Amino acid sequence: MLLAAGAVTVAAVARRRRRAPDERDRYLAVTVNRAPDEVQSSLPEDLARWRDRVEIRIRPAAGDKGTELSVQPSEQVSRHELRLALRRAKAVLEAGEVVQSDTAPTHPGPMGKALRLVTSRAGGGGRL
Amino acid sequence: MKALCWEGINDVRVQDVPDPQLLNDQDMIVKVRLSTVCGSDLHLLTGHIPFMQAGDVIGHEFMGEVAEVGPGVTRHRPGDRVVVCSFIVCGRCWYCRNELYSLCDNTNTNPAITQQLWGADPGGIFGYSHAMGGFRGSHAEYVRVPFADHTAIPIPEGVDDLSALFASDSVPTGWMGADLGGVKPGDVVAVWGSGAVGQMAARAAQLLGAERVLVIDRFDYRLRQAAQAFGVETINYAGTSVGDALLEATGGRGPDVCIEAVGCEAHSTGPQYAYDQVKSKLKLETDRPIAVREAIYNCRKGGSVFVLGVFTGLVDKFPLGALMNKGLTVRGAQQHGQRYIPMLLDRIASGELVTNHLATHIMPLSEGARGYELFKKKEDGCVRAVFQL
Ligand SMILES: NC(=O)c1ccc[n+]([C@@H]2O[C@H](COP(=O)([O-])OP(=O)(O)OC[C@H]3O[C@@H](n4cnc5c(N)ncnc54)[C@H](O)[C@@H]3O)[C@@H](O)[C@H]2O)c1
Ligand SMILES: [Zn+2]
Ligand SMILES: [Zn+2]
Q1: B141 and B204: one domain?
Q2: Which protein residue's CA is at the shortest distance from atom 14 of ligand 1?
């Protein structure tokens, strides 16, 4: 089953990606399909509110791909929180809003409940 | 409202669920008129895609009437007839701007799941598990359509509801296989699978100029339908060697373009079927790539293979040697519907593209479970069960 394969893959990826100390400072990044000056001048609140605590970097993406928006994690903000903020900022800049998921079913069952634990943290993305 | 829900493996039931609400400014609510089963749903039913919760509304191939629009919707008005693409798209990210709509960056609300599995997250789909965004599906009286201006497409007057329905998913999927598979005038094209997707890929290949199109399946009724609707040649793999038949049909070269429209639960008459079943039971492989292997093996040197069938994880015995040494191009994708749907609706309106024969069983939503049973078991000549709301 996919979940089993998924778990194996995730474990393998996690093993491979257990971060060396100097890797912890690696920037988290998204590419936004807008010009750098537009991103600079209208940085959405989701991300802008961390401005004092993390370094935010804005630079043109290669080719026609817009702007690379990166943040350097710090002790003060969790990587999960930052990923979520980046993803939300990108959605607002590109599409004007962050799409909400539909209301979940009332009786998810045991498998569904386990899945909810996963989805409750799956919003920001990132390969972990 | 009433909706057909996934309640567990091979268990779908009509339930009462709350009416959908406008949650975002760019949302609209569609009153569903017709919603149909798709081969992709079978992967949910069998538990192949385990990111489901009991009570999830399924269904993603549908059309209907706009009931309510959010303040950010400009292209649709209440009362408009629309076909809604199975993929939810923002229309403005780099992927959408480059017409790679199913790769939309902004519509999967749970990106971490597919990022872990595949390294990146595709866009969201209606009724297709929490890995693909957790959106409610279309086998329901009403559906919330996010980014409505981009996700839904108006239906021209000359196109009836039933013909338009399939422009949501199976028609653009098939078209994409032929288009991105690179079908050119004079090509010989082989299509694995004579379901709605395979048939539409075969028709698309013809319309893109293919000289011969051969469709492969084991169900005679499906092959007959493809032959009658479009005049394609057929191969029933249960009684024939597909490889020999294709070599004969192509003067020993093999097809120029091979389109796979079968997916991860492919069947086979040979020993590899048992092999794949054992491997997947032992969780050493998640998908059975039988038709993909066959397509790669039988494609002509320098030819192209397009994978339309849905796969979820890891496969075994992938013929990498054939791919490399024969210089093949192998591609796959979830459908980039919005790229093709307006053009396809025009072709449907002109009569060039016929789709309504796919609706072999039309029934009320209350018979949803029976519809899936017929579709899954390929009984009573079922190609698509369509629910009327
Ligand atoms: N890429 C996309 O965006 C997209 C969209 C819709 C559907 N799909 C996928 O396309 C596939 C087909 O969808 P459908 O709705 O037509 O499904 P379907 O179940 O109606 O048809 C599949 C057909 O494949 C045949 N088949 C099985 N094993 C075969 C083999 N070894 N060789 C040849 N034929 C074989 C079956 O007999 C059946 O007729 C599914 O995997 C579905 O998930 C993909
Ligand atoms: Zn589908
Ligand atoms: Zn997009």
Answers
A1: no
A2: B39
| Cβ < 6 A, ligand 1 pocket | B 38-40, 43, 169-170, 173, 192-198, 216-219, 222, 237, 261-263, 266-268, 290-291, 308-310, 334-335
User: In whole angstroms, what is the distance from residue A41 CA to residue A47 CA?
Assistant: 13
Q: Are residues B89 and B149 in the same domain?
A: yes
Residue B219 or residue B317, greater confidence: B219
Number of domains comprising chain B: 2
Nearest-angstrom CA–CA distance, A52 and A56: 9
**Which of A51-60, B82-91, B275-284 has the least mean pLDDT?**
B275-284
- Domains assigned to chain A: 26-100 (3.30.70)
Q: What is d(CA B12, CA B55) in angstroms, rounded to the nearest whole number?
A: 9
Tell me: pLDDT of A127 over 60: no
Amino acid identity of residue B51, one-letter, is: F
Q: What is the CATH number of the domain that holds B374?
A: 3.90.180.10
Owning domain of residue B265? 173-332
Other C-beta atoms within 10 Å of A16: how many?
8
Distances (CA, A) of B144 to A54, A82, A94, A119, B78: 37, 29, 21, 20, 13
Last residue of a domain, one of B312, B332, B352: B332
Domain containing residue B239: CATH number: 3.40.50.720
Cβ-in-10-Å burial (0-12, 13-18, 19+) of B221 comes to middle
Give the A window 51-70 contacts with B, CB below 8 Å.
Answer: 65-66
Residue B295 CA to its chain's centroid (Å): 18
Does residue A43 register a pLDDT over 50? yes
Nearest ligand 1 atom, CA B219: 37
Kindly state whether residues B159 and B277 are assigned to the same domain: no
Q: How far, in Å, CA of B263 to CA of B376, rounded? A: 14
Which residues, at least 6 apart from B320, have a Cβ–Cβ distance to it below 8 Å? none
CB-nearest partner of A119 from B54, B94, B130: B130
Distance B195 CA to ligand 1 centre (A): 6
Q: Do residues B1 and B16 lie in contact, with contact meaning Cβ atoms separated by under 8 Å?
A: yes
CA distances from A72 to A50, B111, B119 (A): 11, 21, 21
Percentage of chain A exceeding pLDDT 90: 50
Q: How far is B222 from chain A (nearest CA, A)?
A: 29
Residue A11 has pLDDT above 50, yes or no: no
Q: Which of A75-79, B137-141, B344-348 has the lowest mean pLDDT?
A: A75-79
Phi/psi at B385 (nearest 5 deg)?
-90, 130
Q: Quick one: DSSP state of residue B131?
A: G
Of B332, B351, B378, which residue constitutes the final position of a domain? B332
